[in-house]
Amino acid sequence: MALPALGPALPEIVLAIGAIAMVLVGAIRGEKATRLLEGVALALFALTLVLVLSGTGRALTFNDGFIADGFARFFKVLTLLGAAAAILLSADSLRRDGSMRFEFPILVVLATIGMMMMISANDLISLYVGLELQSLALYVVAAFDRDNARSTEAGLKYFVLGALSSGMLLYGASLVYGFTGTVTYPGIAAAVQHGHAGLGLIFGIVFIAAGVAFKISAVPFHMWTPDVYEGAPTPVAAFFASAPKMAAMAMVVRIFVGAFPGALHEWQQIVIFIAIASMALGAFAAIGQTNIKRLLAYSSIANMGYALVGLAAGTVSGVQGVLVYMAIYLATTLAAFACVLLMRRDGKPVEEIGELAGLSRTNPWMAFALSMMMFSLAGIPPLAGFWAKFYVFLAAIDAKLYVLAVVGVVTSVIGAYYYLRLVKVIYFDEPKPAFEKGDIGVRAVLLISALFVMALSLLPAPLLNSAGAAAKSLF
Questions:
Q1: Which helix (DSSP H) or strand (DSSP E) does residue 201 occupy?
Q2: Is 462 exposed, middle or buried (0-12, 13-18, 19+ CB in 10 A)?
């Protein structure tokens, strides 16, 4: 039996070997190895990023169950950047709160391997393997602050609901296999040509959609998101909001576009419903929030709805809109969570929105950066968030999904209220005492993310071109 060509999976193999080495170092040196392992994790992500960017064309391996193409490379770059940012955000913050342990960077690396496997999965089995590898690491990360009751509760909720969603996804995959006779995406696509999707196959698509909707925290499988974001340590919440969302959205797009192009009408209705429900709930539920992490959780739910608007179009331009949206969402979310981590007084984190009062007079640079992120998330032109929403709504209109586009615009206007409320608190309320000086890693993430958003606001063409090329590779 011939061995598979390992070249397309080289980035994942390098990360896996690195993770094994990190486990051995941690087992030998214990907590003294924490800083070393953080550095090793960042070095591994940098090396993997170089390997991903050096790839060209389209390659398959492991009996065509693993694919490396432009679409996969685009999302892997975003995932690696999100994971590296999580290490930078967590290093000093978790250590200062007494919850940092050497296992954290190892878990982040293991979760990232699973995410990259999800992104490159070209059949239902490799998809499930990657999904479970990611999930098992994230279950532990969610409850990482084990002395904190809220963190333990968040981890338990995520574990129970995650296990349920995995079961639904697996049941849907078994139905699809039963009615098509194959688990590979090209094989499923060939079996569902010309729109001949039977009732059993439609049930399989529904269960798969339910399973993946949980992973992107889309309605009606969003219920874990606010509690996990609030209960987990802030760096962990930042990790949940960034890298796993990139991988999960890549998984959703590849499943529906790659495996079910012949059943576009069937899955399009499901995606439209999830998108509308997510945009509406995210817009209305965030209005009454006083905790900034819960507000960002509902904002994340709404943003996944906006990204799904592009997927609902089922076209190259729609997928391009999804890729642009996710890249901009990653930068704005990391910057927003970096600002949350900088909210510390008397050595303790504060999370209430009211604590930002008068920030413009005590820390004008942080106030400006956070305000720009809020304006971008609200879709105010000419900031990057405006272009993100513009391209997904344009794709929906081109696909004649006028109601979906109108709902998206209306919910954007409603959502702008709670984003602009933060700006009002920052610039017009009486100032609270100044926050402590933040960690250098947190400030670096804030600076780089803010510069990225501002650069895209002025010059979005490079991102649009790379997203367009990645979207074409999928089709």
A1: helix 199-215
A2: exposed
Q: Which residue has 């100032």 as its token pair? A: 431
Which residues, 6 or more positions from 190, have their beta carbon under 8 angstroms from its beta carbon?
Answer: none
Task: With H, G, I as helix, E, B as strand and everything else as coil, classify residue 457.
Answer: helix
First vs last C-alpha separation in the chain:
32
Task: Say if CB 388 and CB 408 are below 8 A apart.
Answer: no
Pairing of strands 348-349, 66-68: unpaired
Rounded-to-integer distance, Cα 70 and Cα 468, Å: 10
- Structure tokens belonging to residue 374: 């809020």
- pTM metric for this prediction: 0.93
CA distance 154 to 140: 10
| Cβ neighbours of 406 (radius 10 Å) | 13
**Residue 405 near residue 397 (C-beta atoms within 8 A):** yes
How far is Cα 204 from Cα 207, in angstroms, rounded to an integer?
5
| Beta carbons within 8 Å of 467's beta carbon, 6+ residues apart | 74, 320, 323, 324, 327
261 φ, ψ (degrees, to nearest 5): -65, -30
Q: Taking all residues of the chain, what is their mean pLDDT, rounded to a whole number?
A: 89
Q: Which of 232, 122, 221, 116 is nearest to 162 (CA)?
A: 221
What average pLDDT does this structure show over 338-359?
Answer: 86
The answer to whether the bond into 460 is cis (omega within 30° of 0) is: no
276 in Cβ contact with 406 (< 8 Å): no
The token duo for 173 is 């995959």
